[in-house]
Predict the 3D structure of the following.
Amino acid sequence: MTLPYLQTLAMNDLESACQVSPELIGGINCLKGRLTCATVAEAHGMEWSAPFA
C-alpha cells in the first residue's frame, strides 16, 4: 500500500500530504533541523517537537 502514499507526497508538499494522510506523520523523525520523534529524542537525550508545531 505504499503507492498511494507516494502519490500523495508527489502531489503535495509534506505538510499538506500529512493533512491528507495523517499516518505519514509517524514516519517523520526530523524536519527542518529538529527532531520530531519522541522515541528517537529520548534515546539520545535530546529535545523534540511536533513536526508541524
